[in-house]
Amino acid sequence: MAGKKRFIARVDEEGNVKLPLAVLKDMGVTLPAYVSITREGSALLLRFRTKRSPLRLGRQIRTEEMEKLIKEALDELVIARWET
Q1: Which of 45, 51, 56, 74 can bridge 38 by disulfide, Cβ–Cβ 3.0-4.6 Å?
Q2: Per residue in 14-31, pLDDT tens?
Q3: Can you tell me the distance from the alpha carbon of 49 to that of 37, in angstroms, rounded to the nearest whole number?
Q4: HSE value, Cβ hemisphere, 13 Å, CA-based, for 10
Q5: 35-40 and 43-48: which strand pairing?
């Protein structure tokens, strides 16, 4: 697979993993950032949250778009509560 690189990171006693800055920089991740983690068997899938664009008023919004915006806002709320 093109662009596939392998890195090794250490998991400390508290379960923390320090990701190499080079990886984050290559992916365009701006720190600090939130990441959602999905377990797929023995693998973990990390998805970094990009900053949500504000809702533009004065235009028609499809139901699907509104549902997506609501889901994203609820996800951010869950992450924010999880962090506190």
Answers
A1: 45
A2: 999 999 998 888 888 888
A3: 11
A4: 2
A5: antiparallel
